Amino acid sequence: MLVLDPDRRITAAQALCHPYLALFHDDADEPTSELFFDPLEGRDNITMDEWKGNLSSFSK
């Protein structure tokens, strides 16, 4: 269950179905969220000032 590689590890929803956590899991009381959108994905060649501006927008 503890896999560091995000491409190989199970999702949170899958983890909640694992027998180890079954005692603590209630389908009726488990909210789920949409997938995280990373606005910086694919932006490998941006300047330091652009990074700082993007990071400060996350903290507001």
Automatic annotation (TrEMBL):
InterPro entries found in the cross-reference section: Kinase-like_dom_sf
Organism superkingdom: Eukaryota
Name by which UniProt lists this protein: Protein kinase domain-containing protein
